Amino acid sequence: MKTILYLLAILMLASCNSKPKQNNEKEATIADTPKLELIWESDTLLRTPESVLIDAANDILYVSNVNMNPWEKDGNGFISKLDRDGNITELKWVDGMSAPKGMGLLGNKLFVTDIDALVEIDVESGSISARYPATSDAQLNDVTVGEDGNVYVSASGTSKIYKLEKGILAPVFEGKGDERFNGLYWEKDRMLLVTSGSSQFIAIPWETMEASVISENMGAGDAVCGIGDGNYITTSWSGTIFFVDAKGKVTVLLDTQEQEENTADAAFCQQENILYVPTFFKNQVKAYKLIR
């Protein structure tokens, strides 16, 4: 009888000790889940802001303003300058475009897509220095500049990726045609891509150029941001921001679809863990701190 009571006491003690461990594991999981915390939001003087780009050398943000219709050649698009606190320092820094979208910096040259052309802007003078034409159906969208010194451009209309070579946009990768290529992110061994038609997060190794799907159901894919530790943030234009870990697991960081607030071509500052998000028809840029 004493033996039985002793065994029961041990089982009860083990059971009591196991509960706090389970709770601690659950709390750790919740604590490890990344989230976004709003820091600031800009004035609403912007006009359909589609993309944000960080110019670390000059400590400013560039914002491309579609100014209403994203695919109409109306000549009313422009680039704005914001400081890192969200203040608009120059609303119409460079104009003369129709629907500027993705941007990339190479030295003192700012490259911007504008429907059927890649526009080159001299940062020092704030003037357009060149235009590199594409086909009329290309619908050029995003830009990424690689450490290899090349400028890459996505085309939503034709689902192609171009590289600027000797003043010509030359295709380096072509999809099936209906994926609607959008956000690009250059890495040494591969190009990363999100699509707005097939809603996929894709890796394209430079060695084989054979695409593989990292994650699916990414909404109207718009931006890819590397956060510096093997994980990524992607956005869906319709109003969702995702955290994608190195294994392809997806976590929703923000969902503003009910508020009809778009989350377009965002930029991420790895040093400060800040995500800058253009809200398109809400005419603002919002800054969020990534909390890990």
Structural notes for this entry:
There is one protein chain. It is built from 1 helix and 24 strands. With 292 residues, the chain is mainly beta. It has a single domain (36-291), classed as 6 Propeller (Neuraminidase). The chain has a 4-stranded antiparallel sheet, with no helix packed on it. The chain has a 4-stranded antiparallel sheet with strand order 2-3-4-5, with no helix packed on it. A hairpin with a 5-residue loop joins strand 15 (190-195) and strand 16 (201-205). The termini are far apart.
Distance between the termini: 53 Å
What CATH first level would be assigned?
Answer: Mainly Beta
Q: Give start-end ranges of low-pLDDT stretches.
A: 1-31
The oligomeric state is: single chain
Helices and strands, in order, run as HEEEEEEEEEEEEEEEEEEEEEEEE
Report on the biggest sheet. 4 strands, antiparallel
CATH superfamily: TolB, C-terminal domain
Shape: globular
Count of individual beta strands: 24
Mean pLDDT: 91
Biggest sheet strand line-up: 1-24-23-22
Tell me the β content.
Answer: over 45%
- Please report the number of helical segments: 1
CATH architecture: 6 Propeller
CATH topology-level fold name: Neuraminidase
| Rounded Rg | 23 Å
Number of domains: 1
Pairing-aware structural class of the strands and helices?
A: mainly beta
Give the fraction of residues assigned to helices: 10-25%
